[in-house]
Amino acid sequence: MTTLPLKFYQQPTLELAKSLLGCKLVKETAEGVASGFIVETEAYIGPNDQAAHSFNNRRTKRTEIMFGAAGLTYTYVMHTHCLFNVVSGPEGLPEAVLVRAVEPVQGLELMQTRRNNRKKKEWTNGPGKLTKALGIQREDYGHNLTQKPLYIQKGIQPSHVSHGKRIGIDNSGEARHYPWRFWVTDNPYVSR
DNA sequence: TTTTGGATGTCCT
DNA sequence: GGACATCCAAAAA
């Protein structure tokens, strides 16, 4: 398995969101290595996307990393959970891809413990769940995804990919209708 | 300095 | 289907 080069992240955000499906997200911690195939993503394309934190070029301490170069990590704390994004687009353009679900591959015992002995299907089928299962934390903010301990490896492009409206952004005006969510068709680990 | 409001998950009914 | 947990940072005061 080869780690994806920086060049991979430099394609258009919508393309990247699709290309990430089937790739393997890996996190190494002191407790061990945990990884999973990405099966669901969402694109957030700044300044014209009302649902994105970076809407209207809003640049703050939190969204700053979205303006950075492609291939960096954008973590965000929502209520009690942490969400994981991959920054995309050239430097200066605030775009990112949210990873919503993965399929467990490696470090199964570790994930089971972190997910409190739930059913395997429920370990990683949601944006807040997968970060807990893999051990991704707010401290990973700004990390370069071509390096350890958090990186993405080349996978197999799935044969069937579905797309549709994004989730959880009902108060985002017209943007909520954009078909910018992508998932592997019929994969049991997508969030819904 | 205080208030407010989430790109969610879990538990309860 | 609905309440609530529990934290950060933006915005208001």
From TrEMBL:
One of its GO terms (molecular function) is hydrolase activity, acting on glycosyl bonds. Its EC number is 3.2.2.-. Keywords: DNA damage, DNA repair, Glycosidase, Hydrolase. The keyword Secreted does not apply. Belongs to the DNA glycosylase MPG family. The keyword Protease does not apply. It holds the Pfam family Pur_DNA_glyco. It is an enzyme of class 3 (hydrolase). It comes from the Bacteria. This is Putative 3-methyladenine DNA glycosylase.
